User: What shape does this take?
Amino acid sequence: MGKIAVYAGSFDPITFGHVDIVERALECFDGVILAVAADTPKDALFTVKERVEMAKVALKDKPDVVVENFRGLLVNYVASAKATVILRGLRATSDFEYEFHMASTNKNLNPQIETLFMMANKDYFFVSSRTIKEVASLGGSVKGLVPECVERKLKERFHALKERR
Ligand code: ADP
Assistant: This one.
């Protein structure tokens, strides 16, 4: 088995910023596991099953990528996947403090596991799942920022939520 990186996050939903990180990681690693956190805040828009499904569709043309969900401590999941690298993306300095704390905590929990950071692509550094959801909820276009399956799913979800009101 080659060198595997675990790209972990909420992916609520996956964006082209995330896909770009996966593509660039494949230049550095033999394989990437995109690990979708099942223990995410209650305000997640999509269930873990939906988030995994959208990521699978978005990455279906990449044979060296596996999409899974995980529960509990990320370092335990990484060790169980026989990987030693956690991959995270950095957009602006505003990401830094949180990421620094997470990486330090994970290092303390398991010193064998290294966290690596990749800078966001300049085309996507302003893209976050949160703003994507905000724009979509207000009827704005998110074309070119998220995979098509995500665009459709966002439309469906916000349409259904509106109908319920
Ligand atoms: P979190 O796990 O903090 O909920 P996300 O699921 O949104 O974060 O993203 C997972 C990882 O991808 C994080 O390291 C985040 O900083 C990074 N990321 C998010 N959006 C982008 C982007 N547009 N470009 C590069 N990295 C990103």
In short: The pocket of adenosine-5'-diphosphate is lined by residues 9-11, 15, 17-18, 21, 88-89, 91, 95, 120, 124, 127-129 (CB under 6 Å). Helices lie at 16-25, 48-58, 74-80, 93-109, 129-137, 148-164. The longest strand covers residues 31-37.
